Every structure is written in structure tokens, then in C-alpha cells.
Hints:
This is Plasmid mobilization relaxosome protein MobC. The chain is 66% helix and 0% strand.
Amino acid sequence: MKGIKEQSSSMGIRITPTQARQWRMAALRAGHKTLSSWLRSLASQAARTGDTGRELATELAALRTELGRIGNNLNQLTRYSHQQGQMQDVEACLQEVRQAARSAHAALQKLTGTPRAGTSAHDHQ
């Protein structure tokens, strides 16, 4: 067949049934008909670019930390504004920062597959 390389090597890996289900669903969401096709695509891309995904995870973790700091500063401003009776758009801004922090946390959790240690529903309100 023209344009299709012959695949003559085989490779096997062991994964849990849960991983198999998750990976098959991820392959389908990515537009691949088979898990093998998706894994070959990911491995080929990583080999070409050297991208292991660690850089993105590191960047998201730093973003989450920075958003936490910004949120703390906004909490202080909110408290001060309430005390001074000068509440303006601080609450709306605080809500936007909280939403950005939740989004960064969700993206990082999706990348790593693990929840952030010490988090609770209260931490992200």
C-alpha cells in the first residue's frame, strides 16, 4: 500500500483493566480508532519533540501556586475593602481568580492523574 509503512515490530505492555478503559476512551477522544494507533502517535511525537509532558505539568503547578498567592492577596484586599466600606469589584475579581485556580488544578490533576495533597472542597471555594 502506498504511503503506509510496514509495521514489523511488536511491543507489549502490562496495564490494569482501569487503565485500559481510560486509555481506550482517551484514544477515541483523540480521534484514534485503536489504542495502538494512539500510543504510537504519542510515542512518535515524544520521540520527535522530546516533550514528555513534564514541562507542562511543572508550568501548571507554578501557575497554580501563583494563583494561590494572588488569591491570598485578593482576600486581604477584600477584607480591607469591607473594613473601609469601599467594596468595589474585588469580589468579582476574587471569583475569577478562584475559577482560574480551579481550572489550573483540574488541568494538572488530569495530567498527573492524582489529586493534590491536602485539598478539600473548602480549599477551592
